[in-house]
Structure formats: structure tokens, C-alpha cells
Amino acid sequence: MRVRAWIIAVCALAAIAVSVWQLERDRAGLEIEALDVGAIPATVYRAGDTPRPVVVIAHGFAGSRQLMEPFALTLAQAGYAAVSFDFAGHGRNPVPMSGDVTRIDGTTRLLMDEVGAVTDAALAQPWADGRVALLGHSMASDIIVRQALEDARVEAVVAISMFSEAVTADAPVRLLILTGEWEGLLAEEALRALRLVDPGADYGETVGPPPRRAVLAPSVEHVGVLYSGTSLREARAWLGEGFGQSADGAVTLRGGWILLLLGGLAVLAWPLSRLAPVAPRQAAAIPRGVFWQASLLPALITPLLLWPVEFRVLPVLVADYLGLHMLVYGGLSLFILWRAGILRRDGRALIWGGVLALYGIAVFGGALDRYVSSFMPHAGRIAVIAVLCLGAIPYMLSDAILSAGGAAPIWRRLIVKLAFLGSLGIAVALDFEGLMFLLIILPVIVLFFSVFGLMGGWVGRRIGTPYPVGLGLGLVLAWSLGVTFPMFAG
Asked: Has residue 283 got a pLDDT over 60?
């Protein structure tokens, strides 16, 4: 067993080293520095100081600058000054989103103003030649389309995963629409926008005037479209035609290396867990009747109990409801387990729970923050994370106990996870308008279960107790949600 652990550790470290080397090599030859836009965090990527066209890059809902880095690096290597920034309420922008999200003159207008401010700041620099294009993903696609209609300086638009009612047959000027093949309705919307110019047009055709093109990136969805080589090449070629820039050379394909890095970090947790002392399992399996009660009753009761409750404490979209949901859900489950005599004291919970949380947040989370999306909070999010801990820790404790720290049969572990996701689904169905943003955050929760749950299971099976797993993963879950939800001041 010790030899196998060493072999796996060496292989994981090799994967981490190779992927980090490759990801850092993508930055070679570029100047990457902060751009002063007041409170808006912005980064410029460029190769040299000679004047060049500017491309302002905007992320989607719950995204950040890091998520758009494949485009920033590819365009910078092609001779542009690529300027990426964090919208209000996102990433490390300390200013919350505000305004009425249902009105064009509300939140949309405020976000357009941010795009305008970044554009102004970029064009004022000596490395800008006065020409500018806008590129945006998902939520930002509508923002940049509307901004292009008002800002005569914008000469081209690249809208990724676009949905915008502002697109007409005549505007915006020079529009490229990139959509993942698996994006369904958004793919249909891309074709509709293309056919406003030419009713007989199809994907991959350039029509106009005004110049317009819609492209499906093969075999990708809403996030994968940002890493697709097709997306990167099409964006570079479209801007190159408009600005007379080169469209040759390799594009920055980071998706595979990021997966290798995160996979290496996840796998490394197994040999590291071997450093913990082996301990016999402290308790027998939970009786089947108690298991079903503690798994299903909270899933049904919690959304019904909270349905009429108006709970607005945190300056973050639906995070206060999710925190309360986890608190009630975990509290009910722990109460059932306590009545059945299942709960035990465990003095190792703080030590090994802290180690697990440190690895998840500092090591794995540090890699996410560097290469994927913002994971390190600004000061304003610390209080949000602390409040979410009040719900996340009880919930994850109940999850860990019902899953026996990862040692329970797989059907039990699946039931526990699906019951919680189903409970959130019921809550959204009861109040779709108020809780619809929970649907957007569900992939984060599923990813958490898949990656951090795997690492927690290795620790739990090694030390023979679920309590450190529940505490550690509760802290990681609260942190993950606290840095992902957009901050919003209504």
C-alpha cells in the first residue's frame, strides 16, 4: 500500500508540474498588468508597447476575469491589447451589483456603464490606437451588444452564448455570434439573429452588410465554449478581418491542461490522506429506517417550511436562502440522528477537518483562482462566508454521517446527495421567480460533490470517522458558495 501511495503521489505531482508549466508558458512574452479603472478590477494583456486595437472582454453571470483568460491570452498573442475586468458583484470587484434586474435602465444600464468606463480607461493608454471591440459571454453578451449600439467607437462585437433582444437587422456593426453545439435554445437564438440579415443563412456563413456570422463550437456547452479552439480561432479571425490584424498562429488551448492540473490535485489528496493515522470505524452502519428518515424527511420538510419565509440578510443573490435551507435541512437530519443515538463526540474533527479545509481552499482553491475563476474573496465576502458556514457545516455533517464518511454503500451516498438536490429543486419550483438563480449555482454544488466529496471520502475512510469530513467540507462548501454568488445590493 505504501509503494502504491508513493507511485500515485509521484504521478499526481508530475501531472501538476507539467500542467502548471504549460499554463504559465501561455503567458510567455506578454505583459500582464493591472489597469486603473477606479473600483473596477481590470487586467490588460499585451505583447509590447506599440499602439494596437483594444478588445474589452466581459464575463458572464457568476464569472470573473479568469474565466475569460483563453480569449485574453489568444488575442494578446495576436497583437491586441486585451482588457478583462470583473463586473460589479463578481470576482474581486468590491462594489455589489445594484438596480432593478428586470429593467433595461436598471442593472443592465449600470453594467453597461462599467463596460464604458473600462473602454475609456483602455483607450486613454499609450498602447491603444483608438480602435476598440467588445467581447462578452452569456449575461455580458446582451451588455456588450447594447453598449455597442450606443458607443460609436466600437467597431466589432463578439457575443458568446448570446441572447439579446437589442440585436436588429442593422445593428450592432460587425457581429460574430459564438455558441456551443450543446447550448440548445442559445444555438437557435444565434441562427435567428443571423437570419435577421439574410433569411437563408446558416451556421458558418458570413452575411451582410452589416457583417454578421454565427458559428457553433462543436461538442461543447455553456462553459466549454470558452475553451473551444473553434471559438478562439473564430474570434481572432473575425477581429483580424475588421482590424487588419494577423489571424495566424496557435490559439491558447487551456481546457485540457486545467483539467489535468485539477485532476492531479484531486488525486494527490489520496496519498496525502495516507499520512493520517489509521483508526477503526467508530460506529456500525446506520439502520436502514433511520437512514431513510434522516435523508428524505428533511428534503421534503425544508422547502415547505421555508416557502412562506422572506429572508434577506446577505448582500448576495439567494445565498441567504441557501444558507438557511442548509441550516434547517442539516438541523432536521442531525436531530433525527441524535434521537436515534447515532451522534458521537469526536476530538479529531477540528484537526483533520481543518487539514481537509486547508487543502481544499488554499491548494485546490488556489489553482482555481489562478487558472479558472475567482476563488479568493475580497474583504466584503468574508462575512458572507462566515454566515454560510452556519448552514453549510450542519448540512455537511449530516451528509458525512449518513455517508459514513465515504464508507457507506454507493447507493446510500447517491441517495444523500440526490435528496439534497431534489430539496433545492422543490424550493425553486415553489418560488421560481425568487429562487431561479439557484439553478445557475447547481453546477457548482454538483462539482463540489464530485471533487471535494471524493477527497473527503478518502480522508473519512482512512481515519474511520465522518465528523472531520463534515466539518472540513462544510467550511469548503461555505467558501465555494461565498465566492461564487454575485453580491447584490437591491
From this structure: no
Q: Are residues 389 and 478 in the same domain?
A: yes
Please, which pLDDT band fits residue 474 given cuts at 50, 70 and 90? very high
Closest of 394, 386, 395 to residue 417, by C-alpha: 395
CB 406 within 8 A of CB 469: yes
Let me know whether 62 and 163 are in one domain. Answer: yes
Q: Same domain, yes or no, for 291 and 234?
A: no
Q: Are 486 and 366 in contact (CB under 8 A)?
A: no
Domain identity same for 229 and 290: no
- Amino acid symbol at 199: P
Q: Are 406 and 461 in contact (CB under 8 A)?
A: yes
| d(C-alpha 21, C-alpha 171), whole Å | 43
Note whether 171 and 247 are same-domain residues.
yes
Do 307 and 392 have their domain in common?
Answer: yes
Closest by CA to 486, choosing from 91, 108, 162, 138, is: 91
How many other CB atoms are there within 10 angstroms of residue 102's CB atom?
Answer: 9
Which residue, 201, 231, 253, sits at the end of a domain?
253
Within a domain: 117: yes
Cell numbers given for 281: 470505524
* Nine cell digits for residue 420: 439534497
Q: How many CB atoms lie within 10 A of CB 200?
A: 7
For residue 159, the SS3 value is strand
Reported as a single tens digit per residue, the pLDDT across 72-125 is 999 999 999 999 999 999 999 999 998 887 788 889 999 999 999 999 999 999
The residue among 96, 84, 82 whose CA lies nearest residue 39 is 96
In a domain, 29, yes or no: no
Shared domain for 407 and 470, answered yes or no, is: yes
What is the tens place of the pLDDT at every residue in 391-445? 999 999 999 999 998 888 999 999 999 999 999 999 999 988 778 778 877 777 8
pTM: 0.91
Considering the domain boundaries, does residue 11 fall inside one? no
Q: What is the DSSP string of 365-401?
A: HHHHHHHTS--SPPHHHHHHHHHHHHHHHHHHHHHHH
Q: Tell me, what's the pLDDT at 229?
A: 96
Element (H, E) at 132: strand 128-137
What is the number of structural domains in the chain?
A: 2
Which residues partner with 215 through β-bridges?
178
Predicted pLDDT at 281: 59
- Residue numbers of the domain that contains 402: 285-489
Query: Any idea what the Cα angle at residue 24 is, between residues 161 and 182, rounded to 5°?
Result: 20
Contact between residue 190 and residue 162 where contact means Cβ atoms under 8 Å apart: yes
Q: Is residue 17 part of a domain?
A: no
Of all residues in the chain, the percent with pLDDT exceeding 70 is 98
